[in-house]
């Protein structure tokens, strides 16, 4: 199979397109022919091995999973032992330990039928970011009439969180850049606060729930805009830090929570088939839709990852793995950033 691979931690200059042996599914797993793969911030962290604490699970000296990417949509082509709930030929979405490849092994526990209402590229944008948002909104116990603040509202997770909170009946305020304000309003936010013009306290109100997605603001700042009995859900961080990369903020929230009236949650997403199936149901009923920034071919994966790492994405960036425009020349080749910029398919 053709796959994007990396042998060492580092930037996108370490990625290359190469032939690799076809993987085989084990017990409780299926083999999926990948049509499209989604790129998220986690892909960047796995590629760079940063923060360094993450290498305890990713591999200390070199990547344990040499193929980047996790989200995928594709077709089941082989079944592992004991698999009875999925059939060959089923169109599915799920998460793999390396989805930027023509074939990927996926545990059934991280798999669901693909949405009927989405194409493969849109569906590939769903699993990781959608699950993170769904579980974060649940953790905040968002309900009708509540005021909810979503910090990082225009990114992969944020675009889902705004929609899910609005669908739950909440009055949503989204925080994003000025250039992305119209996008966030279109997803259901009643108000938008732009980074360039104000901070999270711009509305002068206390929120019932604050979802801080990949942020860097202090807990003191976020708690100041939270209602006395409100809930703060910290969904990761993109703060600088060689060893922890902002993880100390999430841990600090969990440690402080028992001693204050407000509820402070360190959110860690779980990739579960039942939650993924619920997310698919919400998509098919029209409550949620993926937001695609653009689509690139497999040979341009580096450009997709750089775009996400730079924080420029409006929603999700997707790699087209199978189909027209997905292949490149035979043999090993660098994964071209320039090719990605030229071949990117913009989305409204």
Describe the 3D structure.
Helices cover 26% and strands 28% of the residues. Strands 3, 4, 5, 6, 7, 14, 15 and 17 form an 8-stranded mixed β-sheet that branches. Strands 10-9-8-11-12-13 form a 6-stranded parallel β-sheet, sandwiched between helices. The relative contact order is 0.17. It has helices spanning 41-48, 55-58, 120-124, 127-139, 156-167, 181-186, 219-224, 247-256, 273-284, 301-309, 337-343; strands spanning 2-6, 15-19, 29-39, 71-79, 91-95, 103-107, 111-113, 147-151, 171-176, 191-194, 207-215, 226-237, 263-266, 292-297, 316-320, 333-334, 345-346. α4 packs across α5 (156-167) and α10 (301-309) crosses α11.
Measured distance between first and last alpha carbons: 32 Å
* Estimated radius of gyration: 20 Å
Order of helices and strands: EEEHHEEEEHHEHEHEEHEHEHEHEEHE
How much helical structure, as a percent, in the residues? Answer: 25-40%
Give the beta-strand count. Answer: 17
* Helix count, DSSP H or I runs of 4 or more residues: 11
| Biggest pleated sheet | 8 strands, mixed
- Categorize the overall geometry: globular
Overall residue-averaged pLDDT value: 89
Unreliable stretches: 327-333, 336-348
**From the helix content, strand content and strand pairing, which structural class follows?**
alpha/beta
* Percent range for β-strand residues: 25-35%
């Amino acid at each position: 199979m053709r796959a994007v691979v990396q042998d060492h931690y580092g930037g996108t200059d370490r990625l290359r397109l190469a032939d690799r042996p076809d993987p085989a599914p084990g017990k409780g797993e299926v083999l999926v022919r990948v049509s499209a793969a989604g790129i998220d911030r986690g892909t960047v962290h796995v590629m760079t091995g940063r923060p360094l604490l993450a290498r305890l699970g990713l591999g200390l000296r070199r990547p344990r999973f040499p193929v980047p990417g996790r989200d995928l949509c594709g077709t089941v082509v082989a079944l592992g032992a004991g698999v009875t709930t999925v059939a060959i030929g089923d169109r599915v979405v799920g998460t793999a330990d390396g989805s930027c490849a023509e074939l990927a092994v996926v545990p059934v526990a991280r798999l669901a039928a693909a949405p009927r209402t989405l194409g493969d590229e849109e569906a590939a944008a769903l699993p990781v970011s959608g699950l993170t948002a769904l579980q974060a909104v649940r953790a905040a116990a968002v309900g009708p009439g509540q005021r909810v603040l979503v910090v990082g509202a225009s990114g992969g997770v944020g675009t889902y969180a705004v929609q899910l909170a609005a669908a739950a009946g909440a009055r949503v305020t989204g925080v994003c850049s000025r250039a992305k304000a119209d996008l966030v309003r279109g997803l259901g936010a009643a108000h938008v606060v732009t980074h360039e013009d104000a901070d999270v306290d711009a509305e002068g109100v206390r929120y019932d729930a604050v979802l801080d997605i990949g942020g860097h603001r202090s807990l003191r700042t976020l708690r100041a805009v939270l209602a006395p009995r409100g809930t703060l859900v910290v969904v990761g961080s993109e703060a600088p830090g060689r060893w922890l990369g902002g993880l100390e903020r999430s841990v600090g929230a969990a440690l402080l929570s028992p001693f204050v009236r407000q509820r402070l949650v360190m959110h860690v997403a779980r990739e579960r088939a039942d939650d993924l199936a619920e997310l698919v149901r919400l998509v098919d009923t029209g409550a949620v839709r993926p937001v695609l920034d653009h689509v690139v071919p497999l040979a341009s994966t580096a450009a997709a990852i750089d775009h996400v790492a730079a924080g420029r994405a409006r929603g999700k960036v997707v790699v087209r793995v199978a189909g027209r425009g997905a292949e490149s020349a035979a043999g090993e080749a660098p994964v071209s950033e320039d090719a990605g910029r030229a071949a990117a398919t913009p989305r409204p």
